[in-house]
Amino acid sequence: MLKTDYRDDMFAGARKYAMTTNDDKTISLIDMTEYTQEGDFFGANDINASNTEINRLGNAVVVSLPASGWSGSLPYGQTVAVPGAKATDVVGIHPYTPKELPAATVKQYRKLAGMITDGESGDGTMAFYCGEKKPDADFQVMLTGVSIQKGDI
Q1: Which of 121, 60, 69, 71 is nearest to 94 (CA)?
Q2: Residue 151 has pLDDT above 70, yes or no
Q3: Residue 153: which pLDDT band, with cuts at 50, 70 and 90?
Q4: How far apart are CA 92 and CA 60, in angstroms?
Q5: Would you say which domain of life the source belongs to (predicted)?
């Protein structure tokens, strides 16, 4: 989880510094400001974590859901391998209907994907659940927001 409670320095007037001469004849500035609140430092670790999260949001991977993989009772479920996925991922589940598919297949894939009522990401897996009806054909879905890069599966 990314930090969301950064604070700024708060003080009255201008910042104040004391200048000291070092043994090597350089000078150093020592912050002498009287703070009413000390702020947080935003550094490389913070921006790397933010950029990683932003990049993850754009990740998309296609997974296959075979008709034979669903459990036999409600809610019908199946878990598939998604290498690199994390249990903390918040994943979007979408019908996978590339433009090359015939119209009848697009319609079928959208119908089958619409049967999915829930999903849970795991470490290296994704579980899918159908709360009403079990899909009776193989199909694919696209997952977005997964901690892996395109083409990893």
Answers
A1: 60
A2: no
A3: very low
A4: 9
A5: Bacteria
Give, in degrees to the nearest 5, the angle at Cα 92 between 73 and 147.
110
Q: Is the sign of the CA dihedral 21, 27, 31, 33 positive or negative?
A: positive
As a whole number of angstroms, the distance between CA 52 and CA 12 comes to 37
Task: Determine the residue type at 85.
Answer: A
Taking the C-alpha atoms of residue 15 and residue 2, their distance in angstroms, rounded to an integer, is 30
**Rounded to the nearest 5°, which phi and psi values hold at 27?**
-115, 155
pLDDT in tens, 14-56: 999 999 999 999 999 999 999 999 999 988 988 888 887 777 6
Q: Is the pTM higher than 0.90? A: no
